[in-house]
C-alpha cells in the first residue's frame, strides 16, 4: 500500500481548482441570463383555470388575470372585413367563434410569459378544444408564428376571414389606435 503525505499546498491547489470551477459555472449561468435581455425571467410555468369573460377573439379574463392566446392574432372586436362586396363585423364573429369553442367549459391555460400589456401569453384548452390552434384552423385568427400550417389550410379552404378580404389585425390596430 502506497501512502502519500498530503501537503498544505496540495489542499490549497485543490480548493483553488474547486473555487475556479464554481466561479466559471455561475459566471456562465449569469452570462446566459444577461444575454437573454433585460426582461429575462426564469421560466416559471403558470397554470390557471376557470370560467372566462371574453374581450375579443384572442383575449379574455380568467381567474382575475388578463390572458392573450399565444401564437395567434384575431381580428379586433370592432374590426370589419369584406366578403362578396359587403362589410361584416369579423371581430365580433371571431369572438363569437371563440365562445362557441369554449361552449361553457372550464378553460385551462399554461404560460411562461407576459406581454407588454401585462397579459399572460398562454396556450389554452376548453373541453377537447385547443383554442389557439382551432381559432387559426377555423380561419378566425391568423398565425402569429406558431400555427403556419393551420393558417395555410384555412386560407386554402377559405374559412373564416379567409373567405373574403381583411386588414391584418396588427395593421388594423396600428391604423385605429385606442
UniProtKB/TrEMBL annotation:
Q: Which residue numbers delimit the TNase-like domain?
A: 53-164
- Which Gene3D superfamilies does the record cross-reference, listed alphabetically? 2.40.50.90
Query: Sorted alphabetically, which InterPro entries does this protein's record hold?
Result: SNase_OB-fold_sf, Staphylococal_nuclease_OB-fold
Q: What keywords tag this UniProt record?
A: Endonuclease, Hydrolase, Membrane, Nuclease, Transmembrane, Transmembrane helix
What Pfam families does this protein map onto?
SNase
Mind telling me which residue stretches traverse the membrane in this protein? Answer: 6-26
Any one GO MF term held by the record is: endonuclease activity
Q: What is this protein called?
A: Endonuclease YncB, thermonuclease family
What organism does the record attribute this protein to?
Answer: Bartonella choladocola
Amino acid at each position: 500500500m502506497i501512502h502519500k503525505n498530503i501537503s498544505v499546498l496540495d489542499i490549497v491547489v485543490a480548493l483553488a481548482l474547486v473555487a475556479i470551477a464554481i466561479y466559471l459555472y455561475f459566471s456562465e449561468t449569469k452570462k446566459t441570463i444577461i444575454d437573454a435581455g433585460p426582461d429575462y425571467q426564469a421560466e416559471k410555468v403558470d397554470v390557471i383555470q376557470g370560467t372566462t369573460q371574453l374581450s375579443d377573439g384572442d383575449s379574455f379574463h380568467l381567474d382575475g388575470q388578463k390572458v392573450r392566446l399565444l401564437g395567434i392574432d384575431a381580428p379586433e372586436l370592432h374590426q370589419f372585413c369584406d366578403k362578396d362586396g359587403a362589410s361584416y363585423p369579423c371581430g365580433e364573429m371571431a369572438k363569437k367563434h371563440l365562445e362557441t369553442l369554449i361552449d361553457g367549459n372550464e378553460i385551462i391555460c399554461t404560460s411562461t410569459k407576459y406581454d407588454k400589456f401585462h397579459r399572460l401569453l398562454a396556450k389554452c384548452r376548453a373541453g377537447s378544444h385547443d383554442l389557439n390552434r382551432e381559432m387559426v384552423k377555423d380561419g378566425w385568427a391568423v398565425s402569429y408564428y406558431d400555427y403556419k400550417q393551420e393558417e395555410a389550410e384555412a386560407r386554402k379552404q377559405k374559412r373564416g376571414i379567409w373567405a373574403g378580404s381583411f386588414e391584418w389585425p396588427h395593421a388594423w390596430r396600428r391604423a385605429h389606435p385606442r
